């Protein structure tokens, strides 16, 4: 009888140990996998975001679940923010007090310092989340043209399609399409890249074309080669 009880206890302990080992392997694998972001034009990131805002980062704290070992870094960073301007999103975005991101960069978490940022991201059940794959940038690093694009030009083109063409000649397949001919310049964002000055805007006839910023009128061309910039 005693032998049977010992065998049952051993079986339970072995099963528990096995489950713990399996969980550790899964968590370690998740930590090792790097964050992967698809290349995208800033306007595409603007249009796909639930909200886009200018905000001041005033503080941060790391929030972790009590049932997960802190060594795995599976918590989230809670940034305290003061919203300065909302470019896209519901009325309640202006009252936002916290922005969240994953603690681990391997899970696309992004580290922000104190200061003003452009933040685009997604509204989740836990709050507003930003990641390495979103349009997040120090506000002072944005050009005047980019700031104008945020105010109205990007929104004008959210019904347009931005496509990549790698083989010349490049022609739009539909009238609401803007074409880029060099994908490599899009990611990561680099200072001075002309692609960041462009906005694909929609016209009254339903067609779309590139607007190159500044005081120029929208271009009649709907293809542009950013590799020559």
UniProtKB/TrEMBL annotation:
Key words of the record: Disulfide bond, Metal-binding, Metalloenzyme inhibitor, Metalloprotease inhibitor, Protease inhibitor, Secreted, Signal, Zinc
Binding site for Zn(2+): 35
Compositionally skewed regions (Polar residues) per UniProt: 216-229
Gene Ontology MF term list: metal ion binding; metalloendopeptidase inhibitor activity
Residue span of region Disordered: 209-229
Keyword Amino-acid biosynthesis (UniProt): no
Segments forming domain NTR: 35-158
Paired cysteines (S-S): 35-108, 37-133, 47-158, 160-208, 165-170, 178-200
Pfam families: TIMP
Intracellular or extracellular location(s): Secreted
Name this protein carries in UniProt: Metalloproteinase inhibitor 4
Primary gene name: timp4.1
